[in-house]
Specification:
CATH superfamily of the largest domain: Reverse transcriptase/Diguanylate cyclase domain
CATH topology of the largest domain: Alpha-Beta Plaits
Strand order of the largest sheet: 4-3-7-6-5
Order of helices and strands: EEHEEHHHEEHEHHEHHEEHEHE
Shape: elongated
Number of domains: 2
Largest sheet: 5 strands, antiparallel
CATH architecture of the largest domain: 2-Layer Sandwich
Mean pLDDT: 88
Number of helices: 11
Distance between the termini: 92 Å
Strand content: 15-25%
Amino acid sequence: MKSSVDEAGRPVLGPWAEWMLGNVQTGLLVLDEAQRVVFANPWLLRRARLPAHEVVGRPLLDVFPHLRGSHFERALADALRTGFPAVLSETLHRSPLPLFHPTPSGGEPVRLKQSIQIVPMAGAMARAVGQRHVLVQVSDVSPAVARERLLKQQAERMHAMAHVDALTDIGNRRHFDAMLDREWRHALRQRQGLSLVLFDIDHFKQYNDSYGHQRGDACLKTVASLIEAMGQRPRDVVCRYGGEEIGMILPDTDLPGALKLAQQVVDAVRREAIPHVVSPQGVVTVSAGVASEVPEAGIGADTLLLLADRALYQAKRLGRDRVEVLLPASKTRREPAQS
């Protein structure tokens, strides 16, 4: 396999080299020390949509003017100056060169996602040739990027399936436990208050017995959406705690704020006026148990959960359709809130 150079110093390739470089499925550019294009292979020319005579022999930055001032230009200059190779990954520099996927005539051009290697000629060879050339190798990583995006989407769907309740489309118990633990630890570090409200649909078993489980599911979904709509701050978390119980985690919220929000939910569910023949109110209602703490070292989030659960039990015991709160023994006990 022989090659020589023409009068301008450009390589003249033998048939084997021409065949090989013409079939390489990677873009190849060879630049001289002045950053003029000495060689461009057919793969790159087709995707640049340029004929060889408009590329070979011209300064690279004249062929692709938008590269001026770019990270690519700086990396190329450094490689020529130092003799060290450089890599422009697809993660940070996805489309440095204006290269496009082959498309049917009239089709919308789609730019290639690229990974680029800049490889300067070794010192001994550069001295033999009389100047340092540099090889720019361009790989089309569009399939890999698309695959990465698909895997990310699949991971997000799997995460949603693992953390979202299929019936109500709010967080499930696993998500509730994880978020309560996370927010408890955050509140402990920041010395902020953390509040928790547990809601329970009153007489829900009797509702299912009277109207059937399909109506029961619809009722639960409606109540869940009403509660979720009340948690409007980005870090508020609403999850199905279990059965007909729904938990609301309220970061950086004191007891009065949590009580007010819980009462708003109780009132909103009652106003929704979902018929319930067994309920004394004639409509679906909810009870709520509220707890609020500023976390301290040595105390876990289960303390907050236990207080909210006991408060909810008290709301049920005192007649339902109401909000109740239980305070830690170290704090002044508040009179039960009335609905």
